[in-house]
Write a structure and sequence with these properties.
The protein is an alpha/beta fold. The protein has a single domain, classed as 4-Layer Sandwich (Metallo-beta-lactamase, Chain A), CATH 3.60.15.10. 40% of the residues lie in helices and 15% in strands. The chain has nine helices and twelve strands. The chain has a seven-stranded mixed β-sheet with strand order 1-2-3-4-5-6-7. It has a five-stranded mixed β-sheet with strand order 8-9-10-11-12. Strand 4, helix 2 and strand 5 form a beta-alpha-beta unit. Helix 6 runs antiparallel to helix 7, helix 7 crosses helix 9 and helix 8 packs across helix 9. It starts with a helix and ends with a helix. The structure holds zinc ion. Zinc ion (ZN) binds next to loops.
């Protein structure tokens, strides 16, 4: 009998793990633009994989969604927040890059809105089709202990690259796609009439994330492109929305880290020796979520990039 109870408990906890998300508040950041600021941290059973910043824009024709999160359930949660504001259909869904915490929520919109257009950078679509979709589904399931299970990958099919744009319901969406930035698959979305730029993960704010697929120099350039655009509101991929200071702050993180590593590399130091010196220079970021987990890896990655750059 005991084993039966145990079995029921296990089955029950698995069932609970794959449940709907609670509602997270949608913050109004411009006249018709909203951001649901996800909790800080890595995907976990507690946050059910939800930790990015989904954006949605109300237009007279419908709703444009950017990055509806990491699972079917985050996508559904985003839709519930949209439904508190409008009954109009979702017309467009944009994925800022290949990392699954941003786009696996697409599924929630695919069945309900068969006419919706799913857009992403050509490299994002290629990588997803080449197997990154499955890798991200598996990773999300593992990190959340099954909370995202039941999700299937809806890969965007409309390619948008640098300078692409579209208009819908009185709003203009312009794509900026700086190369070799956060992931080599990145787009940023300028919502022109709203004076808003959705940065994707080219900018983190108060949270340090992975740079495994990034280049420091490309990411610094992406920050410069964003700063030059000069909009009023900047939405990072993770962390609080704000003005241009949000971009400048992360740019300073990247440039301080990369430039310090370059100098120490010239002095012949190993990444292990560099780390404490780099950490000391980044005091302003010590309290950021994930800093201490990521900074060692970032130093190693910056060193590899600086070494390679020396041969270019
Ligand atoms: Zn990312």
């Amino acid at each position: 009998m005991k084993w039966l109870m145990f079995l029921l408990l296990v089955l029950n906890s698995n069932f609970l793990a794959a449940k709907e998300l609670p509602d997270y508040k949608a913050d109004k950041i411009a006249a018709d633009t909203y951001v649901i600021h996800g909790p800080a941290g890595m995907p976990s059973p507690q946050n059910q994989g939800f930790m990015n910043n989904p954006v949605f824009v109300l237009t007279s024709e419908g709703v444009v969604v950017i990055d509806p999160g990491s699972s079917l359930y985050t996508g559904r949660m985003v839709l519930r927040q949209i439904r508190k504001l409008t009954d109009r259909p979702v017309t467009h869904v944009l994925s800022t890059h290949i990392h699954g915490d941003h786009w696996l929520g697409n599924q929630a919109f695919k069945d309900l809105f068969p006419k919706a257009v799913f857009m992403a950078h050509p490299n994002m679509i290629t990588q997803a089709k080449a197997g990154a979709d499955k890798q991200w589904l598996d990773l999300m399931s593992t990190l959340t202990k099954g909370a995202t299970d039941g999700t299937t990958a809806v890969i965007p099919d409309i390619e948008v690259d640098e300078a692409a744009s579209f208009k819908t319901g009185g709003k203009t969406f312009r794509i900026l796609a700086p190369k070799r930035a956060h992931s080599g698959t990145d787009i940023m979305v300028h919502i022109v009439e709203e004076n808003v730029l959705a940065l994707g993960d080219n900018v983190f704010h108060k949270r340090i994330g992975r740079m495994d697929d990034a280049t420091f120099r490309g990411n610094i350039n992406a920050c410069d492109v964003a700063i030059k655009l000069g909009v009023k509101v900047y939405v990072p991929g993770h962390g609080p929305t704000g003005d241009v200071k949000v971009v400048k702050k992360f740019r300073t993180y990247l440039s301080t880290l990369y430039e310090t590593v370059k100098v120490l590399l010239d002095e012949g130091m190993s990444d292990y020796e560099m780390k404490p010196k780099v950490v000391a220079k980044l005091k302003a970021y010590h309290q950021w979520n994930g800093f201490h987990d990521q900074v060692g890896k970032h130093v190693s990655l910056a060193m590899l990039e600086a070494e390679k750059a020396g041969f270019e």
